[in-house]
């Protein structure tokens, strides 16, 4: 019933899209439709498991930053609460609004948001938002994550809420574009977007696993393991490559890709 080839394809899609501003949720929904896979609890659990692979990849890329975040600061004396640079208050301000909203609106989002047409419109509207942010953002006051203020972190978190309410909008895209509009450089916005993905995705994935662990039985372990490994490897490659070429790949490029993808589905899949 569950084909290893499907696991490889979905794992590749998850790894490619989880941290890029193209919407991994949207791509997973569209990929599932193209593969002819019906929505069921096992497949839902599978998509959660492969997200763990992507989380592990991003944690590996930012392992030094994670260590530095929790290293004891000589001035404050508290690990995680250094006075200069990124600390846990920045992280909390950026993730608590989206986590709270996701908890309150989870039933509405699952019932109405995870459908093909709303996702396609989210790709289009999100793309327009990216172009707007790139054209009209103010001069950067934060060149890297350590220069972000609490206000900037909070508003980046509020922009992230758009992606919570509208699957397909893109969590990373909304935070990057929001960061630009709040005065973060493209690199600072991207780094912060990737970094806060670790706790928010870990919490969200852990919550979902509590509801679906019973579907991870021995007869689907190979299917799950394949998707997990593929997602981890691909996500690690994508993030490393994105950070290396960050000055050459703009949000506008991703917006154009989103427009093309939405148009192709409207024209050839949903007609």
From TrEMBL:
Membrane spanning stretches: 45-63, 84-104, 116-133, 153-169, 189-210, 222-245, 251-270
UniProt subcellular location: Cell membrane
Pfam families: BacA
Membrane topology: Multi-pass membrane protein
Major place of residence: membrane
Catalytic activity: di-trans,octa-cis-undecaprenyl diphosphate + H2O = di-trans,octa-cis-undecaprenyl phosphate + phosphate + H(+)
MF terms in GO: undecaprenyl-diphosphatase activity
Enzyme class: hydrolase
Classification via NCBIfam families: PRK00281.1-4 (NF001390), undec_PP_bacA (TIGR00753)
UniProt family annotation: Belongs to the UppP family.
Other known facts: Bacitracin is thought to be involved in the inhibition of peptidoglycan synthesis by sequestering undecaprenyl diphosphate, thereby reducing the pool of lipid carrier available.
HAMAP family listed in its UniProt record: Undec_diphosphatase
UniProt function note: Catalyzes the dephosphorylation of undecaprenyl diphosphate (UPP). Confers resistance to bacitracin.
Protein name as catalogued: Undecaprenyl-diphosphatase
Gene: uppP
């Amino acid at each position: 019933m569950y084909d290893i080839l499907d696991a490889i394809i979905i794992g590749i899609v998850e790894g490619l899209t989880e941290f890029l501003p193209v919407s991994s949720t949207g791509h997973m929904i569209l990929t599932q439709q193209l593969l002819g896979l019906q929505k069921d609890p096992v497949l839902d659990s599978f998509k959660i498991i492969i997200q763990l692979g992507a989380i592990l990849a991003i944690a590996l890329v930012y392992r030094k930053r994670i260590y530095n975040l929790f290293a004891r600061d000589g001035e404050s004396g508290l690990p995680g609460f250094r006075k200069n640079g990124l600390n846990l208050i920045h992280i909390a301000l950026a993730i608590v609004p989206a986590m709270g909203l996701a908890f309150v609106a989870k039933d509405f989002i699952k019932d109405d948001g995870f459908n093909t047409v709303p996702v396609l419109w989210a790709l289009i509207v999100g793309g327009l938002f990216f172009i707007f942010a790139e054209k009209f953002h103010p001069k950067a006051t934060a060149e890297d994550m350590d220069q972000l203020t609490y206000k900037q972190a909070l508003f980046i978190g509020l922009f992230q809420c758009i992606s919570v309410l509208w699957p397909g909008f893109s969590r990373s895209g909304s935070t990057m574009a929001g960061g630009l509009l709040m005065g973060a450089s493209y690199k600072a916005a991207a780094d912060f977007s990737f970094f806060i993905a670790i706790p928010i995705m870990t919490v969200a994935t852990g919550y979902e696993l509590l509801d679906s662990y019973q579907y991870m039985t021995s007869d689907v372990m190979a299917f799950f393991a394949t998707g997990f490994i593929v997602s981890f490897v691909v996500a690690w490659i994508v993030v490393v490559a994105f950070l290396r070429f960050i000055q050459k790949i703009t949000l506008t490029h991703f917006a154009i890709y989103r427009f093309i993808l939405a148009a192709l589905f409207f024209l050839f899949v949903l007609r």
